[in-house]
User: Which sequence fits this backbone?
């Protein structure tokens, strides 16, 4: 009756191994257990006694096992030999570990295998097709010798690999073998397994694989190709590996995922996951009969974990993700817009833009006196404070936090040469920033102000210098922001079209046309104002070309009327 | 790093270890149950003074999460803390009248206990008002995390302090013995933190949160550090250098990823801002036993005079660890 037998390789959590072995043995599946030689004699004795009441359990000769070495293959070989010799009814041999847990009733596995009596289930792919190998050793694991332990003797291991790379000492693969790799957990038919173990060339094969890197992932995977009539290149054991090549562990909270996976056996289970052991080993546990294993959902969970560990969430800075400069894969988490000069030129730019975009629009976030959040709030999303000193303590983090805290809502703020300059480099380096600048617009409030001309001239000189610096930063080759720069004179020639182009870039080509324009400040006499600055010895040039008499000024419409689009 | 500087850090580590040995003479044993400790146990180390009212919940919180043994250094409590702890079956207790400040805020005492008892154990070093939240903490105990960290060859686990506060004045809802403090203080600031790198020790320096927002608006540099490394697979030669903010050897401080990925991390929910805090702040100020001439407590004292409200309309209400992970305050990393 017993068509499937289990070979178990154990080294820790022997109580759990005993529990699983008992589960299988009681359901008429012979079990051969290999216990690592490093396990103490006392524990081994305990295991033997615990299972002594079961007639179909055997213990095979013990090897000292170490990860990545031949010892693991040797252990499975001796145990398999015991299985084949002592249990002639066994048609399929299933290799499992001590931390494996059956997810479906044994009968279902038995039926599944009985329906596929000649099929070997073993993941077996050529080296070119595999991507999971860790440490850059792919084809090389078959070409080099690996006599040194990776775990205990990393230094010699690395040096010897290097030496072989330099000298080009390449081993020849034994006649007729094509190296294949795959998961070490297989289920082979008696015919195939015995053919491998009783092959007259076994000595040569073993000698070759003894010095291959991680032979337990390649020995059976390669040799099966010689004898099998039918290979299903997949493992019946659900076993996932992370980016360091170590197996993912399953816990109680994976119960539903495991149940829905319809896999026969899962590895590896945390020994104290009581709920998993209780559920899956309970006598009244049933599976969904004859369902094909479907580990897709679990794959997605672990693929996500890998993505999170290697790439992380863009724009997030926290205590376990603090990327080096330019390794952020996104300095901020979402696109945002920066306007310079617009609120100087237009009297009601912020409310207008807020209406037009349907989002809250901030004032000058980097105003030295106070952070000008939308509606002049003292605290904003994520409890960001408007205290300027807190912001200036780390302006980049301030901005990145703001964008992170408001995920889902586009951030728009004003910037000005009057503001803290520290953030300019960050803005320019950030691909999420959309920066629109009207150079020289800072002069409009000065022109409209009621201040001494000496002060105005001094401030104009300072602001112009700062603006030139900012624009220079934005024009570097390294700039990654989406930048638009107009001089004041250029901009007011076609203000509607220019505004439309900015909004188009935000919303994509489907953006609706502008129907209402913001109100522009009255610029009558602005040309003369610039001429006065020149007469006082300053040279205002960032505004572009303004004639000195107002009559010739462009545009000629009175700016008190809002612009209307002609249809 | 230059060999000279590396050697400098080594000397510093040795110095702290010697110091811990010297300061250990101030410790007087009260209850020693360390013979119960099994090789795979997770241990917890605490320095405290007059925290009796918090202990019931503190112990049950960490017992539920799989901590097997507690080590307490009682700094001359007068409220029955020492007696209460000495009765607990899984606690070992020492007491001292020595200066908290001159034992570098208790860390010398803890370093001594760690090097004596924690070698080879995952060890959690927290204050009685800090509650560790880590990925899957509702379904997996701390030993599951410890096993996973071991399998991943990770030796230390980082957690940020998250200051929790009530809505309204902090004296409004008195804390009862045994109560979950986060029934009262269930609000926090989700996104106003600044991070800088401390190149000398390779750790991150995090500041911000409600304390910076309320008390340090005009001197942000002085705001308290929020980065902590509370869970470490202890080895005899390790040493905490400044509270649990950083360790030597400095490789242990690399609990963050530098190349864009996220490492697995947690949060220490900080139940400091309860009604007990106003009394504590006044007492600590008069004892002058805290960091940098207790300027932190000075700021609290000034701020607390008018019983402040930490809460604002952007405060987040605490739900569970998944919420903290979504907000970006902690990460599952590749633990799935």
Assistant:
């Amino acid at each position: 009756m017993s068509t499937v037998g289990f070979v178990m390789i154990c080294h820790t959590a022997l109580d759990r191994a005993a529990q699983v072995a008992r589960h299988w043995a009681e359901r008429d599946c012979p079990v051969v257990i290999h216990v690592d030689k490093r396990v103490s004699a006392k524990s081994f004795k305990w295991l033997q006694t615990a299972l002594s009441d079961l007639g179909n359990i055997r213990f095979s000769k013990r090897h000292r096992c170490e990860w990545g070495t031949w010892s693991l293959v040797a252990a499975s070989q001796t145990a398999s030999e015991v299985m084949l010799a002592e249990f002639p009814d066994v048609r399929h041999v299933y290799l499992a570990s001590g931390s494996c847990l059956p997810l479906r009733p044994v009968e279902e596995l038995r039926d599944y295998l009985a329906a596929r009596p000649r099929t070997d289930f073993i993941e077996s792919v050529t080296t070119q097709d595999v991507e999971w190998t860790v440490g850059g050793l792919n084809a090389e694991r078959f070409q080099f010798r690996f006599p040194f332990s990776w775990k205990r003797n990393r230094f010699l291991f690395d040096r010897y690999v290097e030496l072989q790379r330099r000298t080009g000492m390449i081993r020849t693969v034994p006649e007729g073998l094509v190296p294949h790799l795959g998961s070490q957990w297989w289920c082979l038919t008696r015919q195939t397994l015995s053919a491998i173990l009783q092959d007259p060339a076994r000595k040569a094969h073993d000698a070759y694989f003894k010095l291959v890197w991680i032979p337990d992932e390649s020995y059976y995977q390669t040799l099966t190709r010689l004898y099998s009539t039918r290979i299903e290149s997949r493992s019946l054991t659900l076993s996932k590996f992370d980016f360091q090549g170590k197996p993912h562990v399953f816990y109680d909270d994976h119960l539903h995922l495991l149940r829905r996976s319809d896999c026969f056996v899962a590895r590896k289970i945390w020994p104290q996951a009581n709920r998993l052991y209780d559920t899956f080993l309970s006598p009244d546990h049933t599976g969904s009969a004859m369902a094909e294993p479907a580990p897709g959902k679990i794959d997605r969970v672990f693929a996500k974990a890998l993505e999170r560990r290697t790439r992380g969430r863009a724009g997030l800075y926290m205590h376990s993700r603090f990327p080096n400069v330019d390794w952020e894969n996104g300095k901020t988490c979402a696109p945002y817009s920066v306007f310079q000069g617009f609120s100087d030129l237009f009297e009601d730019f912020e409310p207008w833009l807020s209406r037009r975009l349907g989002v809250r629009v901030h004032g000058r976030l980097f105003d030295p006196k106070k952070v000008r959040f939308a509606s002049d709030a003292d605290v904003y999303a994520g409890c960001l404070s408007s205290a300027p000193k807190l912001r200036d303590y780390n302006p980049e983090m301030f901005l990145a936090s703001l964008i992170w805290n408001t995920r889902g809502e586009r951030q728009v703020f004003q910037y000005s040469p009057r503001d803290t300059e520290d953030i300019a480099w960050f803005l320019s380096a950030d691909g999420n920033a959309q920066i629109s600048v009207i150079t020289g617009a800072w002069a409009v409030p000065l022109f409209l102000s009621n201040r001494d001309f000496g002060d105005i001239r001094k401030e104009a000189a300072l602001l112009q210098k700062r603006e030139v610096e900012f624009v220079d930063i934005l024009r570097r080759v390294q700039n990654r922001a989406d930048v638009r720069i107009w001089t004041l004179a250029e901009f007011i020639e076609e203000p509607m079209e220019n505004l439309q182009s900015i909004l188009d870039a935000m919303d994509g080509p489907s953006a609706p046309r502008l129907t209402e324009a913001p109100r522009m400040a009255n610029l009558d006499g602005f040309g003369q104002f610039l001429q006065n600055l020149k007469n006082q010895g300053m040279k205002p040039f960032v505004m572009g070309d303004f004639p000195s008499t107002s009559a010739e000024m462009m545009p000629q419409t009175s700016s008190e009327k809002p612009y209307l689009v002609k249809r | 790093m230059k060999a000279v500087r590396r050697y400098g850090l080594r000397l510093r580590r040795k110095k702290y270890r010697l110091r811990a040995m010297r300061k250990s003479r101030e410790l007087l044993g009260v209850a020693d149950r360390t013979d119960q400790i099994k090789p795979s146990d997770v241990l917890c180390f605490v320095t405290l003074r007059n925290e009796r009212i918090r202990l019931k919940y503190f112990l049950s919180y960490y017992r539920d999460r799989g901590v097997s043994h507690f080590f307490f250094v009682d700094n001359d409590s007068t409220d029955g803390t020492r007696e209460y702890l000495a009765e607990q079956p899984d606690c070992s207790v020492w007491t001292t009248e020595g200066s908290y400040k001159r034992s570098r805020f208790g860390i010398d005492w803890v370093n001594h206990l760690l090097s004596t008892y924690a070698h080879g154990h995952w060890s959690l070093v927290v204050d009685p008002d800090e509650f560790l939240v880590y990925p899957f903490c509702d379904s997996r105990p701390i030993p599951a995390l410890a096993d996973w960290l071991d399998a991943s060859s990770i030796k230390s686990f980082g957690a940020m302090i998250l200051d929790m506060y009530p809505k309204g004045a902090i004296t409004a809802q008195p804390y009862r013995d045994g109560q979950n403090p986060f029934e009262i203080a269930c609000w926090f600031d989700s996104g106003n933190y600044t991070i800088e790198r401390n190149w000398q020790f390779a750790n991150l320096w995090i500041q911000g949160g409600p304390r910076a927002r309320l008390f340090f608006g005009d001197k942000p540099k002085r705001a308290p550090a929020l980065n902590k490394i509370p869970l470490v697979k202890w080895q005899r030669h390790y040493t905490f250098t400044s509270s649990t903010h950083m360790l030597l050897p400095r490789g242990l401080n690399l609990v963050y990823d530098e190349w864009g990925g996220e490492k697995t991390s947690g949060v220490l929910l900080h139940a400091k801002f309860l009604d007990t805090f106003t009394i504590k702040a006044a007492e600590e100020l008069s004892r002058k036993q805290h960091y940098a001439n207790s300027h932190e407590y000075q700021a609290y004292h000034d701020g607390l005079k008018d019983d402040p409200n930490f809460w604002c309309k952007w405060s987040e209400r605490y739900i569970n660890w998944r919420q903290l992970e979504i907000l970006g305050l902690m990460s599952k990393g590749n633990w799935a």
